[in-house]
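Incident review: delayed structure delivery

Summary: a single-chain prediction request sat in the queue longer than the usual turnaround. Root cause was a stuck worker, restarted by the on-call engineer. No data loss occurred. The affected request and its eventual output are reproduced below so the record is complete for anyone auditing the incident later.

Affected input:
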Amino acid sequence: MTRRVRALLSRILAGPPPRPVMSADLGGDDEARLLADMRACLDDESMVGTRRRADALADLYHRLAPAGQARFVAAVSALGDRSGAADGGLSEPGAFARMEELELFERASSKLALLESLEPPRRRLLQLFAATARGREILDGMRRHADAGLSAEIDRILETGS
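Output delivered after worker restart:
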């Protein structure tokens, strides 16, 4: 068995990532850790790992106090929405490198991955939350703490499913 196959199997067969242990109000350095966990969820190259991380973050949201939930929503907002950016998000670190890598493989799946890489991180995370077991519940709860832009984005995801 090759090293790559072993690595893939170990990622697939590994248990869920450890549940984030944070205070109920996300005080101290918890907000920075939460943002790092959200970015790790978005950067995980394994679909299984991404889903597990999204589930862990959704579970964390439900365990938080109202003040912590508001900070959680602020962290999601901090991921930003590039949809209105003049460059379409190409100024994000590593965007061109990802595009070049994906262009090397001229398959439909690579083109789909290229389009997905240009999707705003905040929208991708919200879509991952929507796909969890309690997706509608978490998005409805997040809407209570969201600004108008994030609330509208949540509404679009709930209406269209994407």
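Verification: The chain has two domains: 28-81+121-162, 87-119.
Action items: add queue-age alerting; document worker restart procedure.
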